[in-house]
Amino acid sequence: MTKLELISRFRSIEKVKKGGQKTVYKAVTFDGKMVALKIIGNATDQRVQQEISLVQSLSMSCVPQIIESGLVTDESVGEDALYIIEQYIDGTSLRDWINGKNIANLKFACTLLEALLSAEIELEKNNVLHRDINPNNIILGTNNTVYLIDFGLAKIIGGSSLTQTAAAHGPFTPGYAPHEQFANIKLAQDVRTDLFQIGITIYECCTGSNPFVKPNETVYQIMSRTMTMTAPLLNLPGDTKGQFAQFINMLMAKNQSQRPDTATDAMRYLNAIKSTLEMEG
Fold this sequence. Notes:
It is an enzyme of class 2 (transferase). This protein has nine helices and ten strands. It is of the alpha+beta class.
């Protein structure tokens, strides 16, 4: 199938964004169903192929489902490309929400945290690490559902790895990955790696910025800051005893042993401190 033949299967199609070798479209089928169409230029990209397989194995309401995937020939360059047709999510990325100068109050932060921990509990049951939880990969759905997207860095715990063991660094997003991830310490990566990223994400929602990322810094400077800097405690109205702030810093702990052992433990802790939180709006 050619790219033109693929596109002709839709009544309408609109480019949403393009980044690297991936182009994302919002498309409507001839029976009126809205879907997301993704075309990835490198058909041999093992991480994309792994992502497709992994997402298809999950059955989670907060993860957009893949409807179809395969290969198409891009006539303009004479090369094959991967295509993915998946569930369309009507909503706003958390990154766009933050870039809109929004700041989370305690209720928003607590609700988002609960949604992310619920998703992490399900991922943990499936032995899956997302490893790239950050505002770019979270969608605030118009149906009040929080969606987790982009499993390009995800891995099955105990499964084979696409990264060379001897590599100095594993794949990561600077400012969100803890030391065990960017240092490529494979055996140390577990649910606590994702919990670190969830903590950073909530912190950024409440302050408007990532505590480990400063303008014009290099990746190595961000890595150093992530390893050595302890973020100041949040100061949120309604956090009457400061326990929510302490919990977020617990999630962001440098030492894995200081983070909750499981997502279920983290959720249990959140539920235990709710009685101290005064949430409005």
